[in-house]
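Morning!

This is the sequence you dropped in the shared folder:
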Amino acid sequence: MIQKLSGSPHEKLCESILQLTSEAFPKNMSRDFALEVTYQTLDAIGPSDPIEAMLASQITSLNAQGMRYLARAESDENWLCHTESSIKMAVKLLRLKNETIETLMRYRKKGEQKIVVQHINVSDDARAIIGDIKTHNGGGGNV
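The structure's back. Tokens below.
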């Protein structure tokens, strides 16, 4: 099970990813809770190799820290300057989490690109052909 969570057959690497991720959670969370969330998140993301596992662990940690800063901003004990600072830090962490998700998605695609045309606009005097266009060589002589 532990190797499935890290995408690697190497047990020490698996343990390291899980331990370091859970240690990156906010300090007000219990280690057991952080480790359980780490297990569940890695299981849900389903990394296929150690690189994906490391990106998934970063996503997990960044989300936990970002949400903690949002909660801190909501606290009644904070002065306005502390609230603003907490919100700015939350935005940075959650933005970095989103960038890490995009990196994981690009890594999984392995460079595959797909272009989708969603809208075609043709004026009244123009003609459009939608679909495959087959070309063939003309039957003429020498040019």
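Headline: The mean pLDDT is 82.

More detail when I'm at my desk.
O.
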